[in-house]
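Justification of computing resources. Each target in the renewal requires a structure prediction run like the one illustrated here; the chain below, 361 residues long, is used simply to show the kind of job we budget for.
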Amino acid sequence: MKSLLSQRKAVVALAVVAAFSLTACQAPAGKTAAPTAASKPAATQVSQRLIGNGLYEMAAVPAANALYVASAQSFKDVNGGVIYRLDPTSLADKGETHTDLKNFAMATDPDGSVFYTTNTLDGGVSKVEAKSGKVLQRLMFSEKGPDGDALGAREVFWHEGMLYIGGVGDPGLIWVVDAKTMKLKTRIRNAGKWVTGIIWSATTDRIYAANGGGEILVINPHTHKIEKRLTAGDGKAYLFLNLASDPATGRLFVTDDSKAKTTLVFDERSGKVIKRIEGDALGIKFNAKRNEIYISQRESKKVLQLDATSYAVKNSWSFDSHPNSLLVSDDGQTLYVTLKQDFNKDNSTKGLDSVARISLK
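Resulting structure tokens:
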């Protein structure tokens, strides 16, 4: 296997695409157009804690009373990563799992017994016991990029006992893995350039997968066939990243933090864009219990709380570092955010990454 640093060079080239932002947005934030209403100071309680280097996605496991955070650790002279186990209320340490591979995206099994994390640089996915944080199984994919390095395994999404894992290649693909056995079931090929976000919608019973070519793939989860490819239809270039869905209204939300600096809202039934929310946008979550949308603005160093009906900004939270991944608690009353530092020229970071807890009550 080539050195970690050589692998990282390939990932850096795709950093914005993969929405893991290894070195993106080091320049000062510029002004962006605001959504439909001016934001007001947040009245909710925010707590924040320095955790470690290379924080990315999170997984909440209520049965274990734990918030797990995937870490790739440093990209300078550090092999492997860490999975941090935090108290979901205080953010205090409850344990750590040191892994030989670096950890990025996360997904939970609905029964709360296990969760999954992608090992992006090495092209694999790990199954982790929620109670102990122990790595139980791992599957490594065989695909390689043009440089001979492993094809990056980006997002992971659990649906009906299957893991859907996006491959960051050109063309990209989606690996479909049996979550129980950790065996590869099939590959969904010709998925466009760089598969990024993946989600399932109860409205249409379809898997939606975003890619860096400005497409949203509509996938039948029963046949694993790509049935449609949705686009903005306006002739502009897009680099789609993360997805969220509102099953009550059949709306699909997708962010673009690179080319268009916007969030598009699709009607799932017609496949048409029905709303544009201007401004830099990286992570996105829909909260059905509060009828709200949350958007992380990495460049602007903000997290927005929007009314999901009017798209008006209800609150915004500003940070000293860059908001990255978002997670909404099962009861819909808490929002978690990973906050990332800039990188130095030697691939070290300017400080430790943080986790913020926002009480929405």
